[in-house]
Amino acid sequence: MQALRFAAALYRQRLDTVYHAYVRRDPLSRLHSKPGRDNPYAIYDRVRAGGDLVATRLGNYVTASYRICDAVLRDRRFGVRSAEINGPGAPGDALDMSFLDRNPPEHTRLRRVAQPAFSPRAIAGYRPLIERTVDDLLDKALSGGTFDLVGSFAAPLPIAVITDLLGVPDADAARFAAHGAVIGGALDGIRSLRHAAQLQQASGALDAVLADLLALRRREPADDAVSRILAAEGDQIQSSEILPMCRLLLVAGFETTVNLIGNAVNALLDHPDQWAALRADPAGLAEKAVEETLRWDPPVQRTARTPSEEIEIGGRTVRPGQFVITLIGAANRDPSVFSRAGIFDIHREPEADHLAFSTGIHYCVGAPLARLEAAIALQRLAERVPDLRRAGPIRRRNATLIRGPISFPVHAGQRTLAPR
To answer: What is the similarity comment for this entry (predicted)?
Structure first.
């Protein structure tokens, strides 16, 4: 009976979204549909034209304004309750994403446990592994001339790094990538009964791997993040909170980076002058290319907050239980903040901090690692595959909150050997 109620609510919601997206042309409904997957930025412009804070058909608010997004994300009176705006979840399958779904003081306590694994010293120590992994992946990918940038390069790289950081033995990169794509897609909400079953299977498979890892590290502690998290058990973190934290670090540790690399290469190949500039100065421009991608086409497109008290913002009164949907991808192209906001330019000098990793207390804990991985990946691609070009159309993931290609065929052309 519960499954029937879930199915009825799910398909009623999906039909309602389709109707409002294609018949009523409601901007937020279109963001949850194919137009939002293909080109959310045209929809963001419509939202921006409606004002700083626009009422939605469900009684919430949405904003494309950088100023409002930044203010909401920094204001501690706004908190997270993300599961409540994503529609019906699968029966018995409320996916706990640890401190990502928590407000202070729980958020503060749990984040403090995870933070040391992503300290500047810890991240710097991963540079040799990242460089070695990038070169090994390119050696294999370039042997055939034509390859899938995502499956052969952008996905295996962060999976290799985050599984090493956590201490996951013998990680299966392809399986982790598939599970991560399912879980990342579910952040938009469940799309179908099949998707619900896929989510349940993916989360169950990841949890089984992590449960085995936790049992191993309880018996045999090592120099890895999981062992350090376990060392805090009973003092800073409860036993029931450990597996959700490890799941969050694992999935977030590769989902952000794989989409960042995919979006960056897609933008560079769409702008030959920018690709030529990076090829001419890979070491000097790789980091700037990463930052411009994060501004221009970020992996995470939006998030939401709800206030703990009535708050006046953007000329509106937002009450507890109402959500402000902050369109991060739109804020990063706000023409009142960024000059030539719709232009991709890796020479851009910062005019404001982009919001690709959010801001405030929920600023992405893994941002330094994602930046380092993506910068090394782009630098090596420019150095070793200067003639990189498309070998077919990209296929985007079936999600709109997380943006990136799931398949990206490319041809290497002339290439060089890895430095050894």
So the answer is: Belongs to the cytochrome P450 family.
